[in-house]
Structures are given as structure tokens and as C-alpha cells.
Amino acid sequence: ATVAAARERAQGERRVAITPETCRKFVAAGAKVVIERGAGNGAAVTDEAYEQAGATLLDDAGAVYAAADVLLCVQAPEAGSIACLREGAALVGLLAPQADPARAQAIQARGIVAFPLERLPRTTRAQAMDVLSSQAGMAGYKAVLIAAQLAPRFFPMLTTAAGTIRPSKVLVVGAGVAGLQAIATAKRLGAQVEGFDVRPETREQIESLGGRFLDLGVSAAGEGGYARQLTDEERAEQQRRLAEHLKGIDVVVCTAAVPGRPAPKIVTSAMVAGMRPGSVIVDLAAETGGNCELTRPGETVEAGGVAVSGPLNLASSGAVHASEMYARNLYNFALLFLADGRLVDGRIGFDWDDELLAKTVWPERNGDGTAAG
Ligand code: NAD
Predict the structure, then answer these.
(1) Above 90 in pLDDT, residue 133?
(2) Strand, helix or coil at 169?
(3) Residues 257, 176: contact at Cβ < 8 Å?
(4) What is the ipTM of this complex?
(5) How far apart are the first and last CA of the chain?
(6) For 1-13, b where at least 16 C-beta lie within 10 A, e where not — what string?
(7) In this structure, is the dihedral angle defined by the CA atoms of residues 318, 323, 328 and 330, taken in order, positive or negative?
């Protein structure tokens, strides 16, 4: 089978879905690897590095798509590129198929076997393929560095000849994968760190990183280990306690999310107005609308001396390591159907009894692998 990756076209996207490391592994597994020239530039991978890893490099993106039995990507290609894929080819990446009707249509029209990895079940077996986790780790790390950069204060406590500087107080809202990495990073920079989440099990996780769990009196564990949406009463209670607490906080890093829904609005304009000038909010949830009411995606705004930053695609800003992890995730996922490099009638053989394939594929399929509906 031929596994391929083209240069990412989405604006600001620097990551790449195949690295020389995974290229070598694919070749060792019996696959042929095709890469568009320049595909690794944003992630500091040269064409020569791919060549040395056994890849064939092509100048033309269309030729890369046409050669692929399995096209690996970070963000979904445009509908026009999908139309260049072979009938029945597999497409794996953060595809967000429903975000663009033309793309969804192209996937279906071409009979593409699409695996949007945001649909991957988050089971123990899937951990090594979990791109949401690996990329969230980089995002949480970078969010804290942005906050430190914007803050007019030190993070650590300093004892100097000019007297003592007290450490910054950092609050991390939402302690999932990104939030926990943010807590760990802020802690390493020497800040006093607190975190809160509506899933009660996060208390222990926050504490194990040296953070303090901020108890806002709301517990809302939902399905599949995720949070559920809060009721109006729960939200009001959370907000009342949070508003008071934020008056003493220097830096807020927001990471709260509820699957399939816009980001919960947690930090209101009134709360920001109550914060001290010189405080900083970095809102990782900007992509899905923001946890802070003042967040503007892709911008940093100022309100009453408080900087509110809504960075987008932070994983891409750490493209080297983000790609390293992402590419390994994709390699592990592709092994579910490439283990023996087999092609059946020119198509890859998918085992639709494998829950990871069956639950990730889009559109959903019947048990025998035929399109549902
Ligand atoms: P996410 O990005 O969907 O959400 C981030 C965090 O926001 C979550 O911890 C969530 O509880 C929290 N949140 C939602 N609403 C909130 C509110 N109103 N106030 C405060 N916090 C709020 O989550 P994620 O980082 O992708 O991970 C979510 C869960 O999935 C975690 O339990 C994680 O351990 C689990 N997980 C399991 C696996 C696995 O076993 N394979 C892999 C990754 C993650």
C-alpha cells in the first residue's frame, strides 16, 4: 500500500502528518511512502531527511493524492484535493467532516474511507493513537508561555537585593489534558498554581502536579469520562465563587471544553472587570468560542488593564514535537489496517469488527462496512 502526505494548506498550519521516523516505520512495515516536496518545512523536516527515510518525493500535490492508498494529514484537505484521491482511498487526520459541506460531499462522492481522529474512542487501547491528547499537551504548554510573555510580572518568587518579589498566582480553568500540562508548566516556571474542573477526579491529578485544587462546589461528570454541561443553578454557583476568587489571581489559563458543544462561558466580562490591572487571561478555548466572554479568537484584547488572549492552533506553534507525536499517533492508527501491508482488490482491508475503526470512520457504517443509511 502507498501511504502519503501532502503539504498542509490550512493557514498557519506548520505540522506534518508523516515524519522521517514514521516514514521509516511504514517502509519497514512493507508500505511505500510518498511525500510532497516541502511538506516538512514548517516542522523543520527537510526533503532530504524524508528521502533518507525511504520516501518518494513528488513536486505536485495532485500526484501525491492520486498515488495514495492512505492519505495522512493534519487538517482536512480541500474538497478539490479530496477529489484527486483514488476511489476508496483512506483519509486519516483531524478531518472535521461536518465543518465544510463541500468537503463532506467530496468524501462521500469519492467513496473515501475517512477517519476523523477526533472521533476516536478514548479507550486505553486507543491512547497511543489519541491525537487530541498529544496535541492538547503542546497547546497547554504553549498557553502558559504566552501568558508568561504577556504578564508584566515574574512567575517565580525572587529574593533579590531589591527585595522580595512574590510569585504570580496562576489559575487553570479545566484540568483535562491541556489543563494538566498548563499546570505542570506554570509550576515549573515557579508560579503558585491552582486548577479547577467539574470532574471530581481531577483534584488528585492537579495535586499530583503540585497544584492546588480550587473547589467551586460544582461536580458534573458526564458520559465517557467527559464533563457534561452545567445546569443554570450549577453555573450560577460556580460563577459566584469564581468572581470572588479571580480578584486575587494574576494569570488565568482557560482550557474548559464539553465535547460537541461550544466552549462553556466561565469567565464573564464582570469578572474580568473585577481583576487587577496587569492580569492576563489566555483562552485556549478560543477556537470553539472561548471560556471568557471577552475572548476574540486569534487576537489579544485589553479590558481595564487585563490582557485577554485567544490564540489559535497552538499545537502548530510547537510544530516539531507536535508533529513527532501526531505522526506516531497516526502510524499506530494506520497499523490497524496496514499491519501486513495488505491490499485487497486494490483496496486496504478494514476489519469493521475492530471498534476503533468502526467508531472512528465517517460517515458511520453498518457492521459489514457498507455505508449506513
Ligand atoms: P476536553 O478538552 O474535552 O475538556 C477539557 C476539560 O474541561 C475537561 O477536563 C472538562 O472536564 C473540563 N470542563 C468542562 N466544562 C467545565 C466547566 N464548566 N468548568 C470547569 N471545567 C470544565 O477534555 P480532554 O482534555 O480531551 O479530556 C477529557 C477526559 O478524557 C479526561 O477525563 C481525560 O483523562 C480523558 N482522556 C482519556 C484518554 C484515554 O484513556 N485514552 C485519553 C485522553 C483523555
Answers:
(1) yes
(2) strand
(3) yes
(4) 0.94
(5) 29
(6) bbbbbbbbebeeb
(7) positive
Please indicate whether residue 175, judged by its CB atom, sits closer than 6 Å to ligand 1.
yes
Reported as a single tens digit per residue, the pLDDT across 85-132 is: 999 999 999 999 989 999 999 999 999 999 999 999 999 999 999 999
* Average pLDDT rounded to a whole number, residues 62-78: 97
d(CA 75, CA 103): 12
| pLDDT confidence bin for 81, thresholds 50/70/90 | very high
Beta bridge partners of 343: 348
Angle at 192 between CA 135 and CA 185, to 5 degrees: 20
Atom of ligand 1 nearest to the CA of 225: 32
Phi/psi for 282 (5° steps) reads -115, 120
Ligand 1 atom closest to Cα of residue 259: 3
Grid cell locating 295: 475572548
pLDDT of residue 282: 98
| DSSP secondary structure of 332-367 | HHHHHHHTT--EETTEE---TTSHHHHHHSBS-B-T
Among 14, 65, 71, 68, which Cα is nearest to 40's? 14
SS (H, E, C) 268-318: CHHHHHCCCCCCEEEEHHHHHCCCECCCCCCCEEEECCEEEECCCCHHHHC
The three grid cell numbers given for residue 347, joined into one nine-digit string: 483496496
Based on the residue annotation, tell me whether 50 is a catalytic residue of this protein.
Answer: no
Q: What is the DSSP letter of 125?
A: T
